[in-house]
């Protein structure tokens, strides 16, 4: 149980450190530090391909949320759509931001499977 918690912590920490350079470009070097928890997370043995895909997907979701932050949140307010309520643009912005990040994270999930294969089945 303890190893599972640490693997989740490595995945979340790696995603945070890899994505922080998108929000604060002056801290780009922290992304290099973020590779350590990422590789540590994928080096730990997992019982299924689905778990490795899930860890890769969560990692990609965090990285893409950081990377797409400026694109989606700096389009507010959405007055040009004709919305007058203040909460509608926030819901539209958050929904499209999270949906785009989730779809793009599928590629990182596939990367997690490929990394698992490379880690276990190669020299």
Description of the structure:
- The model has no long low-confidence stretch (mean pLDDT 81).
- It is elongated and about 55 Å long.
- It is mainly α and 123 residues long.
- The longest helix has 35 residues, at 87-121.
- The two termini are 29 Å apart.
- The protein contains 5 helices and no strands.
- The chain has helices at 2-23, 30-43, 49-67, 69-73, 87-121.
Largest sheet: none
What is the 3D shape? Answer: elongated
Q: Nearest-angstrom radius of gyration?
A: 17 Å
Topology, number of strands: 0
Q: In DSSP terms, counting alpha (H) and pi (I) runs of 4 or more, how many helices?
A: 5
Feature tags:
123 residues; 5 helices; 0% strand
Gist?
This protein is mainly alpha-helical and 123 residues long. The two termini are 29 Å apart.
Summarize the helices and strands and which ones pair or pack.
Layout: H1 2-23, H2 30-43, H3 49-67, H4 69-73, H5 87-121
Helix pairs in contact: 1-2, 1-3, 3-5
């Amino acid at each position: 149980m303890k190893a599972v918690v640490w693997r989740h912590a490595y995945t979340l920490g790696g995603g945070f450190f890899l994505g922080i350079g998108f929000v604060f470009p002056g801290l780009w070097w922290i992304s290099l530090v973020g590779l350590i928890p990422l590789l540590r997370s994928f080096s730990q043995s997992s019982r299924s391909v689905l778990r490795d895909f899930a860890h890769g997907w969560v990692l990609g979701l965090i990285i893409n949320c950081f990377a797409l932050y400026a694109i989606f949140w700096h389009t507010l307010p959405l007055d040009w759509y004709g919305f007058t309520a203040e909460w509608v643009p926030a819901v539209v912005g958050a929904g499209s931001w999270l949906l785009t990040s989730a779809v793009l994270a599928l590629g990182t999930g596939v990367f997690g499977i490929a990394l698992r294969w490379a880690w276990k089945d190669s020299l």
